[in-house]
Design brief:
Length: 60
């Protein structure tokens, strides 16, 4: 199962995928020592963590 939503996904499945992606982004942010003040509210998209993840993936 992909994290990317598809046209035929029911709203609940789309919401669950978004929460799973936000959770994974937060886990990576903690692993990369993103300061707690830079973290978004629980369950929301975190641009700072996403940028850190993107930067990290380019270096790997």
């Amino acid at each position: 199962m992909s994290l990317e939503p598809t046209i035929s996904d029911p709203p609940l499945l789309t919401a669950l995928r978004q929460r799973q992606l936000a959770s994974r982004t937060a886990q990576v942010a903690r692993g990369l020592d993103v300061p707690p003040g830079a973290r978004a509210a629980k369950g929301t998209f975190n641009a700072t963590a996403a940028a850190a993840l993107s930067d990290w993936s380019r270096r790997e």
